[in-house]
Automatic annotation (TrEMBL), chains A, B:
<comment type="similarity">
    <text>Belongs to the isocitrate and isopropylmalate dehydrogenases family.</text>
</comment>
<protein>
    <submittedName>
        <fullName>Isocitrate/isopropylmalate dehydrogenase family protein</fullName>
    </submittedName>
</protein>
<keyword id="KW-0560">Oxidoreductase</keyword>
<feature type="domain" description="Isopropylmalate dehydrogenase-like">
    <location>
        <begin position="4"/>
        <end position="322"/>
    </location>
</feature>
<dbReference type="InterPro" id="IPR024084">
    <property type="entry name" value="IsoPropMal-DH-like_dom"/>
</dbReference>
<dbReference type="Pfam" id="PF00180">
    <property type="entry name" value="Iso_dh"/>
</dbReference>
<dbReference type="GO" id="GO:0006102">
    <property type="term" value="P:isocitrate metabolic process"/>
</dbReference>
<dbReference type="GO" id="GO:0006099">
    <property type="term" value="P:tricarboxylic acid cycle"/>
</dbReference>
<dbReference type="GO" id="GO:0004449">
    <property type="term" value="F:isocitrate dehydrogenase (NAD+) activity"/>
</dbReference>
């Protein structure tokens, strides 16, 4: 079976870490067909469109998409790409690695972020000179779909249920619906949950990240709190993510285009390669996925390391070291 | 001139730390008239109302209000109290103290949080079985009022302008209006600003809190990011806050009712007493305000300390030590 993989390097270091990720995937005897497409600031400047229709269509039809990073046009690219695969959940692991400086080295969290609605609805108006509004949308159906995914995600021995993070004391109807729906689905499925207000979560995760494990939350809460967790593990540099839809998915590192080092061949490919581990798992290659995770982890610990981690290795050196550790 | 101060102890340790704060204020030769009123879970259970009309009216007419803490009914009490004084800004300093364990001891931030709108509009609907909505409101007038306050706040030598934190890449119209309005006011007044996306702020403040100083942001962003900063300085326990309106204001510690230790006389009164320092400054007693801040800081460093900070002093011991240091 051939897996068609859309490859969208984007801007800046996206151009460097995306080929590294493809190399890692190519090192497995799996039948991938890679199809490259453009998106981001550069293609906007050239063509007037940050996300050309061909790229959108490709993501909407490929089995999976590897997305690097884009600059100023990030929202114009990543939000439609999520829509292209009907992604209802964004999986964001935030884990500290041995050998990498972290504010909270004991952090090991996974955010399951609602990926379609909330304040990301796009429903905004300037009603008068003075007043602008945004319609925050929360549906039972999206909350349910997320909750069912979360229940599957925590099935097995590794996790004891999940935390539901929300702000239902203020957003009573919308986050109330979110919280109740997620809780009810979990209850039906016999999955344990606990509830934490979004603001309280922000305090508590700094004080003691180990009290949390899997976190299920609305869209913006997931955006901000996963970035907070990124801060606790030492920055966005090492975090992968997966935008999962019912039939396809988009995988991307959480980091940006790093314009300060772009073009020098010294970008750390770890987050992008960890994103391929998520892709492998998504396609059913669990052993391969684990092998990639282990190889990245070993390389972070033992080197070679890129400049962001105090080393002087190139993107290629690190990629090769990871591939060597796979075999 | 007599200053009428409404005193609302609330529930749990609110009942213990609020009298401590009143004692501190009484130690100054200032003509205060304290009027006590009820709010919170206990009065809800007794009377069916978490915020009795008399309490609301008192806050709406007193020169300033000292508010302790309430339990489950927090949103039903604090949100109307903010409205009672037409509070357009919530000042939330988040500062690490010597002698207190902190994840990031170099943290010294002040959040100026919009305090009237955003997702706190109360405009929610369940449109259908499936769909609920909330209307997020951002006005030019509220953004302007906040920006003008922020410009005054940073005037003088201590601050080099402020950061505007928002999510205008997604909430283009609403946070766009917020950002543009705040930036324009600052520009007119010659105040330097920089802009940070809310999610990026969450990462960056963990990695290096010293890159920020005064942070101006919408309501929910202020709620969550100030609680994040609380996590960095060691918890909510020591943070005061001020809800400022055009003619009156409500001062409250950021911590809750601490039901686990309520009634034992061992609650740390520091945050509540720091809130009186904000009250003194608000009423124009700058020297007295500074004296209280210094006395609390010295007591945190040198003791006596309550149990939360590893000591065994009572609320009264700590309060007396602080008052002793005032003279
Ligand atoms: C670029 C932006 C629209 C996006 C988001 O807010 O979801 C980003 O912050 C992310 O988390 O992937
Ligand atoms: C209790 C709640 C409504 C309140 C808020 O969200 O503003 C609290 O978290 C705070 O920050 O004072």
């Amino acid at each position: 079976m051939t897996h068609e993989i859309a490859v969208i390097p984007g801007d800046g270091i996206g151009q460097e870490v995306t080929p590294a990720a493809v190399e890692v995937l190519e090192s497995f005897p799996i039948d991938f067909e890679f199809v490259e497409a453009e998106a981001g600031d550069a293609v906007l400047a050239e063509t007037g469109e940050a996300l050309p229709q061909e790229t959108y269509d490709l993501a909407a039809s490929a089995d999976a998409t590897l997305f690097g990073a884009v600059g100023e046009t990030a929202a114009d690219v990543i939000l439609p790409l999520r829509t292209a695969v009907d992604s209802f959940v964004n999986i964001r692991p935030a884990k500290a690695y041995p050998g990498v400086d972290a504010v909270r080295p004991e952090t090991d969290l996974v955010f399951l972020r609602e990926n379609t609605e909330g304040v990301y609805s796009g429903l905004e108006d300037r009603l008068t000179q003075d007043v602008s509004t945004l319609t925050r949308v929360v549906t039972e159906s999206a909350s349910k779909r997320l909750a069912e995914f979360a229940c599957d995600y925590v099935a097995g021995d590794e996790h004891d249920g999940f935390s539901i993070v929300h702000k239902a004391n203020v957003m009573r109807e919308t986050d109330g619906l979110f919280r109740d729906t997620v809780r009810d689905v979990a209850e039906e499925q016999g999955v344990e949950t606990n509830e934490v207000l979004m603001d309280a979560f922000a305090t508590r995760v700094c004080l003691d990240p180990e009290q949390f494990d899997v976190v299920v939350c609305p869209n913006l809460a997931g955006d901000v709190l996963s970035d907070l967790a990124a801060g606790l593990v030492g920055g966005l540099g090492l975090l992968p993510s997966a935008n999962i839809g019912p039939e396809r998915a988009v995988f991307e590192p959480v980091h940006g285009t790093a314009p300060d080092i772009a073009g020098e061949g010294i970008a750390n490919p770890a987050a992008m390669i960890l994103s391929t581990a998520m892709l492998l798992e998504y396609l059913g290659y669990e052993a391969e996925s684990e092998a990639v995770n282990d190889a990245v982890e070993a390389t972070l610990e033992e080197g070679p390391r890129t400049a962001d981690l105090g080393g002087d290795a190139s993107t290629d050196d690190v990629t090769e070291a990871i591939i060597d550790r796979l075999s």
